[in-house]
Amino acid sequence: MRHQGDAALDITASPVPEHSTLPGLRLVERLLEGLNRLIVVAASIALIAAAVVLSESVFIRYFLRASTDWQDEISVMLLVGAIFMSAAYVQSVRGHVAIEAVAELLSPSANRLRVLCADGASLAFCAFFAWKSWTLTHEAWVDGQVRDSTFATPLWIPYSLMGAGMSLLAIQILLQIIAEIGRPRGFDHSR
Questions:
Q1: What gap in Å lies between CA 62 and CA 59, rounded to an integer?
Q2: Is 124 inside a domain boundary?
Q3: 73 located within any domain
Q4: Which site among 10, 90, 154, 189 is 20 to 30 Å from 177 CA-CA?
């Protein structure tokens, strides 16, 4: 038995299982699919790099008794980037946590309404989060804000990664809402 979340592990799978029937939207979906695939590869590399950096940090800290300030900050930046930037891909395959038991109990039209309401609420949250992240990015850039550490990482870096990731996620959700609204009634799609 294959679960929806299993598709998120296969980057060769089509990231958007339900495509829009609207011609102009199809091009945007394809562009976002390609971008998401590139981001997933980059995020995978970032996760591996974070693991290597953290492993090296443990070795240096416990065996050589040396400071590891830069390792912690770099690994946090890599993890923040990987998590936020890959969120749109995970949404594109509906890989986020969902309660499927309710969907099986509802009629197709009630399930469609449930999907639209959940996506609408998610879009509102992600759009707000993206806006706030871009606001923080601007403030950090203008004010020259840095982390309070010896490495002094500029704060615009993680804020911009959060803003970009949440912006892509909001766009992905918006595309899925438009595709759902444009889908003919009675169209059976498994989610």
A1: 6
A2: yes
A3: yes
A4: 10
Return the SS3 of 146.
Answer: strand
Which pTM does this prediction carry? 0.80
Tally of structural domains, the chain: 1
Phi, psi of 47 (to 5 degrees): -65, -40
Q: What radius of gyration, in Å, describes the C-alpha atoms of the chain?
A: 20
Cα dist from 35 to 78, 80, 85, 153, whole Å: 18, 18, 10, 27
Tens of pLDDT, residues 97-156: 666 777 778 888 888 888 899 899 999 999 999 999 999 999 999 999 998 887 888 999
Task: Determine, yes or no, domain membership for 11.
Answer: no
Instruction: Quote the CA–CA distance of 77 and 73 in Å, as a whole number.
Output: 6
Q: If you search the block for the tokens 């394809």, which residue do you land on?
A: 30
Q: Tell which residue, 120, 122, 133, 126, has the closest CA to residue 177.
A: 120
Residue 126 within a domain: yes
